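Section 5: illustrative case.
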């Protein structure tokens, strides 16, 4: 009888250990698989939130945007919006014929930023650029035509627009106020749209040459360069100078 009891004790202990390990594993799985709710951008952490070791909500939650949460969207809701045609005229006047812009492309979730000169076709509302064949930006635009452009007026342009007085008696505005105003002035276009890259054999190439007005030999361009046609889908035009006209400094144009 004693031998039989001695045989059961190890068996019972093994079953007890196995039961505890299964129970512990089950609890861990349940905690791991607990649903983490999505949260709205800008949401505050509730007082009853569990203790956390991180300060970045995105490490656990999916962040949702309600299209009115960003500062830009809130600014656009202010009064003083221009109608679509009037805004386009201001965009054309500000951008001019051809400017050096900042181009953003992305492939496999890897962003790339470079500069590129674009010329505006104000009638068809598109932009043209010439680039040497085989560049990284051309390759990326061919793979993913969704791009963003940015153009801002250089700071020296503000100095020509607002010449501060040499002495206090030269103007009604004080020298200090003029200098502060000049540092606040900023004007820029932020654009998103589609880019199409093509060579000299494309029918649109000659139209792009006409708009771009390149200073080098057209035959050299046809042999060694590709054309990019950028079609803006939306343009955000920030212009601090609109304050003097009682207009919203943020204006949004959409194709």
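Designed sequence:
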């Amino acid at each position: 009888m004693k031998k039989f009891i001695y045989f059961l004790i190890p068996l019972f202990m093994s079953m007890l250990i196995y039961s505890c390990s299964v129970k512990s594993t089950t609890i861990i799985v349940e905690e791991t698989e607990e649903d983490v709710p999505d949260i709205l951008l800008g949401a505050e952490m509730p007082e009853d939130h569990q203790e956390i070791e991180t300060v970045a909500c995105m490490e656990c939650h999916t962040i949702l945007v309600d299209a009115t949460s960003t500062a830009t969207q809130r600014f656009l809701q202010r009064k003083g919006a221009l109608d679509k045609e009037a805004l386009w005229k201001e965009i054309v006047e500000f951008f001019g014929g051809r400017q050096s812009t900042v181009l953003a492309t992305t492939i496999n979730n890897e962003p790339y930023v470079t500069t590129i000169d674009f010329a505006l076709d104000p009638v068809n509302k598109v932009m043209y650029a010439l680039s040497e064949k085989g560049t990284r930006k051309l390759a990326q635009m061919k793979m993913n035509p969704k791009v963003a452009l940015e153009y801002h007026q250089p700071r020296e342009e503000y100095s020509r627009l607002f010449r501060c007085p040499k002495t206090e008696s030269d103007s009604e505005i004080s020298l200090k106020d003029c200098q502060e105003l000049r540092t606040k002035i900023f004007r820029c276009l932020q654009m998103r749209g589609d880019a199409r890259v093509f060579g000299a054999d494309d029918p649109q190439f000659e139209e792009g040459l006409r708009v771009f007005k390149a200073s080098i030999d057209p035959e050299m361009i046809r042999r060694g360069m590709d054309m990019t046609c950028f079609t803006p889908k939306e343009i955000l035009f920030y212009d601090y100078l609109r304050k003097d006209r009682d207009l919203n400094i943020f204006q949004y144009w959409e194709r």
